[in-house]
Write a structure and sequence with these properties.
Largest sheet: 12 strands, mixed
Number of helices: 19
Distance between the termini: 13 Å
Number of domains: 3
CATH topology of the largest domain: Rossmann fold
CATH superfamily of the largest domain: P-loop containing nucleotide triphosphate hydrolases
Helix content: 25-40%
CATH class of the largest domain: Alpha Beta
Radius of gyration: 23 Å
Structural class: alpha/beta
Length: 553
């Protein structure tokens, strides 16, 4: 089989205005970036569609691969094949992990979003624009201190960092302002990857440009000497930051290999942020299609929970169906089989590993929404393994199940799944959040840990207790919560695979994100600036004199 990039380079794409026409978007409604991608102008007219929303999530990711994005893209193609007018809303990949080890987020095989190369690299520049806006806030904040400090800001209590879309561990802790009086006051600072920037979250949670500006004004950047919060609004720079982001707030329109329309916009990571594409993109899809497919980052414990409790209230729409992606290989890995042996049949490891899938299914059942599990089939899966897994899902978990083969077959590999998703999406459901909006921060965190992760509870460090005291003093104690946690385990320890029990989630710190309107709870060893592996993916990439790229997946 051809590589992902070879399949992409052989693709015959439709002009982007033809894709827009499928959504009844006029040529005046789009701003083309070349022939195969475009920005969509706001506002987007509501066309009175059915507004069926399908959320795709998965078990915890493993080195074996789950193919969540690939499955969602192939399912979108399959739904259009059976005449269900469907579009996709998906996150934009960060270039940092593309050059590192994670790979891209535009699907794979014959279920890809195009132009794959552009999407995984610079695309329309949204992520870089967010980086520039983030660093502009940092510069104007430091300038305010240097030029008189009228706001009485304590330089030791600056909470705003710097940002870049690169995996660079050297930037996790830095010292700035060296070189004398003309270069500022020396102090410790740091960088975080752009996907972790609060500006990324704010962009993805805003409804329009005015809402964006309002949310930016609320972003906490520092405290005064007497612990008064200082925001972007106090610096009077929210208008300038909104100007920088005026184009980035417009969703991007592209297509799959089979010409399914795809809105791609925003890219917060789910392990360190809220992990969902923009509500603007999802609303655009809901307004212009009968069926909208969207995904949330990593497993259901991180991405899906945040979609349900943070994003859906702002959408004024909850999912009509939840699709949980699992693979035999990943479940065997969770059951103790080594990565190098995953192509070998091992029913015992599979029987141990299905506990992970069980916890994800039970977690999603808390939301009272129809669920279907899809087994993303790999060539190494044996008939005996597949038969066991299908029976386990039907009889033990009591949810529907379908096997999919979108990587090798595109939309044709998910036709049966598409039919079942249609039936489930048209059922009535009684959606329920796992916590009450009036619950305090500790209660919300505890409910997520017990109901979603299957853990025993939480424990706050001395630093987190101090943070909570400050949160209560400022009346922030009923904000939503966003847990930053390893994606590899239901617990905060990436080595605890499967479905660990009776574990306690250690909360190291609580960070108020006032613009995004949630409190980030940092757990375990999670950090907001990733590093590169021993052999970064960048080492295998090249481009020839004709501009043809190789080594990009």
């Amino acid at each position: 089989m051809l590589t992902d990039i070879e399949i992409s380079q052989n693709a015959k794409l439709l002009p982007i205005n033809k894709i827009a026409a499928k959504l009844s978007l006029s040529e005046n409604q789009i701003e083309p970036y070349g022939n195969d991608k475009a920005k969509v102008k706001l506002p987007i007219q509501d066309q009175g569609k059915q507004k069926k929303l399908i959320l795709v999530t998965s078990i915890n990711p493993t080195p074996a691969g789950e193919g969540k994005s690939t499955l969602m893209i192939g399912l979108g193609d399959a739904m259009n094949q059976i005449d269900l007018q469907t579009s996709i809303a998906i996150r934009e990949p960060s270039m940092g992990p593309v050059m590192g080890m994670k790979g891209g987020a535009a699907g794979g095989g014959y279920a890809q979003i195009e132009p794959m190369m552009d999407i995984n690299l610079n695309f329309t520049g949204d992520i870089h624009t967010i980086s520039e806006a983030h660093n502009t806030i940092a510069a104007l904040l430091d300038n305010s201190i240097q030029k008189g400090n009228e706001l009485n800001i304590d330089p030791r209590k600056i909470t705003w960092t710097h940002s870049i879309d690169v995996n660079d561990r050297e930037l996790r802790q830095i010292v700035i302002g060296l070189g004398g009086a003309n270069t500022g006051d020396p102090r410790q600072s740091s960088f975080e990857i752009t996907a972790a920037s609060e500006l990324m979250a704010v962009l993805c949670l805003s409804e329009d440009l005015n809402d964006l500006k309002n949310k930016v004004s609320k972003i906490l950047v520092a405290y005064t000497y007497d612990d008064k919060p200082i925001t972007v609004g106090d610096l009077k720079i929210e208008g300038a930051i909104a100007i920088i982001l005026k184009d980035a707030i417009k969703p991007n329109l592209v297509q799959t290999l089979e010409h399914t329309p795809a809105y791609i916009h925003g890219g917060p990571f789910a392990n360190i942020a809220h992990g969902c594409n923009s509500i603007i993109a999802t609303k655009a899809s809901l307004k212009t299609s009968d069926y909208t497919l969207t995904e949330s980052g990593f497993g259901s414990d991180l991405g899906a929970q945040k979609f349900m409790d943070l994003v859906s209230p702002k959408l004024n729409k909850t999912p009509d169906t939840i699709v949980i992606v699992a693979t035999v290989r990943a479940l065997k890995f969770n059951g103790g089989q080594t990565k190098n042996d995953l192509n070998t049949e091992n029913l015992e490891a599979l029987k141990n590993g299905v506990k992970n899938l069980k916890q994800h299914v039970n977690a999603m059942k808390n939301y009272n929404t129809p669920i279907i599990v899809t087994i993303n089939k790999f060539y190494s899966d044996t008939n005996q393994e597949l038969e066991y897994l299908v029976n386990y899902i039907k009889n033990e978990l009591n949810v529907d199940v379908e096997i999919s083969e979108v990587y090798g077959k595109g939309g044709k590999g998910a036709i049966k799944l598409a039919g079942k998703v249609k039936k489930l999406a048209n059922k009535d459901n009684d959606f329920t959040h796992i916590y009450d909006e009036n619950d305090d921060v500790e209660t919300k965190l505890s409910k997520i840990v017990t109901k979603i992760y299957g853990g025993k509870g939480i424990e706050l460090s001395s630093k987190a207790k101090k943070d909570l005291k400050l949160i209560k003093q400022n009346d922030w104690n009923q904000m939503d919560v966003c847990i930053a946690k390893t994606q590899y385990s239901l617990s905060d320890d990436p080595k605890k695979l499967g479905a660990p029990k009776d574990f306690i989630i250690q909360i190291n710190s609580l960070i108020p994100k006032l613009g995004a309107n949630f409190i980030v709870a940092m757990t375990g060893k999670i950090i907001t600036m990733p590093g590169l592996p021993t052999k970064p993916a960048a080492l295998d990439m090249d481009i020839d004199e004709n501009g043809k790229i190789k080594g990009l997946f």
